[in-house]
Amino acid sequence: MGTSSGSNVNHQHMSKMLPPRQQQQQQPPPGSLQTSLSLISLDPHTSSNAQEPRFNSDNIHESPTESASSRETWPTADAITAKKMVNGKTENDCTEQSVIRRVSNADKITLRDIARERVDVISEKMHDLPDEFLDELKNQLKTILEGNGGSQNREEFLILQKLVQSRSDLTAKTLIRAHRAQLEILVAINMGILAFLHPNISLSQTSLIEVFVYKRCRNIACQSQLPADDCSCEICANRNGFCNLCMCVICNKFDFEVNTCRWIGCDFCSHWTHTDCAIRDGQICMGPSAKSGTGPSEMLFHCRACNRTSELLGWVKDVFQHCVPAWDREALMRELDFVSRIFRGSDDPRGKKLFLKCEDLLEKLRGGLAESMAGRSILMFFQELDTDSSTSLENGEGGGLIAPQEACNRIADVVQEAIKKMEMVADEKMRMFKKARLALDACERELEDKAKEVAELKLERQKKKLQIEELEKIVRLKHAEADMFQLKANEAKQEAERLQRIAHAKSDKSEEEYTSSYLKLRLSEAEAEKKYLFEKIKLQESSHTSQSSNGGDPSQILTYAKIRDLLHGYNIPSKTDSHPNERHNFRTNP
């Protein structure tokens, strides 16, 4: 027997679920059990408060005696978060109404319209409606599914569900054209599950369609393709939406209880059943030993899926041995109550002892006994029960000798049980070996990939190194060119300075030569002018002499004589004695 429903193992739908007994053999120590098996906390307060009122399309009229174990429940965190979000939207309704775009009565649609009208027509209308109006439609359906309105909400839900389930046009092809909110509402109505409307739960359009047409498990935590594990049993083949990994064979519902006697798993087909449902339907009863089919009767579980029987005492012992350390007071009392109800009608001496022990511990726990003491007490009881069983096998039930045939049958049972356990251990070792082999192959592939990456990095590094060396060569070449150009620039500068000095020297020399030639020209002009004046004076003097002899003016003759004396005494200035103004005039007026 397994310790819990197959749906409650993390990602159980991703791998084939082992038989419950084999799961029990693979249980880790108590301290690590919660990590490997639990989807939610083992806190009983969490488990008990995780339930939300639900309608179920497969079992609308629930019996008043039906226990909570046959109701679909959801994790507490999701429920609380969803309620907070709904409450938050309710508190903000007043402020949001001021900004919500008004929708005319002609454009408005109702839940009945969605359940009754064609998919494409409603989808087109919903595309034109604001998101606030669509959220309001979802909130209306949430209120109906929560069942807080009593019989009125229940009747409205039944009407909506009847409208949806009576339609033949809701197929995978037509639902592809549905609006997202429209599809969520249709799935929630068809399945009777509030979780599909929660804002924090988002499934793909394809997943929602598959859930609607019963091709995928409606359990959000499971989401296995149906039939799960390709099971070909009559129940999985003929019951729409049934998932053998997480649902009860009898009530077709699921919950998130783990590490508990609340679920019973079949040793052979791994289908699961609520303990309450099994008790109510008479699937738990006395019968011949499940191991040998002979000998004294014991309390057995009859699986409705495969019609085989599994013994219950060993299953209860395994559950308590693995889970008692993790249970608190309320959880322990609840589990003891489950065991007490399972073995209440037992005629087997060991079953009777277990029933009386559970009743005694329940009374003591109600009287204030510590849960740790009660847990140790029940574990010691199971040890004593095993000891008594071994003693009875050796000495017989009545303390006398056992018939040879019966002894052989019991020895065969023990051998078969040992072989079965060895086979399960071998299967588990093989599974672990395959898993390790796959991990090793993955590591080898990863090492090969890393080696390729390292080789590529080395090649890239070599290329970068070559590029750096090439750049360094270019830099050195550019530095050499710069030095060469600098040297040429210095030589050109020196040459320019030399040429400038030569130019200045030539300029000064040419200036001096020009000045000298100019002065010489002026001197020749002055001499020519002197000759001219001298000749003129001489001519005039001769003419005056002739006039004076004829009675000319002596004063005029005297004046001419003075001029002549002046011309004789006039000296032309040299180059060095030239007047500055003349030099200036020479430079400016060549």
Protein architecture, described:
- By secondary structure, the protein is mainly alpha-helical.
- It has 21 helices and 5 strands.
- The termini are far apart.
- The chain has helices at 20-25, 30-37, 44-49, 76-91, 93-96, 111-116, 119-128, 131-146, 151-165, 172-175, 180-191, 205-212, 234-238, 275-280, 313-323, 329-342, 349-366, 371-395, 404-549, 554-569, 580-588, and strands at 263-265, 272-274, 284-288, 297-302, 309-311.
- Residues 2-71, 73-100, 396-400 and 572-590 have low confidence and may be disordered.
- Helices cover 61% and strands 3% of the residues.
Summarize the structure.
61% of the residues lie in helices and 3% in strands. The longest helix is centred in the C-terminal third of the chain and has 146 residues, at 404-549. It has 590 residues and is mainly α.
Q: Based on CA inertia axes, which overall geometry fits?
A: elongated
Measured by DSSP, the beta-strand proportion falls in under 5%
Number of helices: 21
The helix-strand sequence is: HHHHHHHHHHHHHEEHEEEHHHHHHH
Class of secondary structure makeup: mainly alpha
Give the helix/strand layout.
Layout (H helix, E strand, L loop, with lengths): L19 H6 L4 H8 L6 H6 L26 H16 L1 H4 L14 H6 L2 H10 L2 H16 L4 H15 L6 H4 L4 H12 L13 H8 L21 H5 L24 E3 L6 E3 H6 L3 E5 L8 E6 L6 E3 L1 H11 L5 H14 L6 H18 L4 H25 L8 H146 L4 H16 L10 H9 L2
Antiparallel strand pairs: 1-2, 3-4, 4-5
Main features:
disordered N terminus, single chain, two-stranded antiparallel sheet, three-stranded antiparallel β-sheet, mainly alpha, about 600 residues, about 60% helix
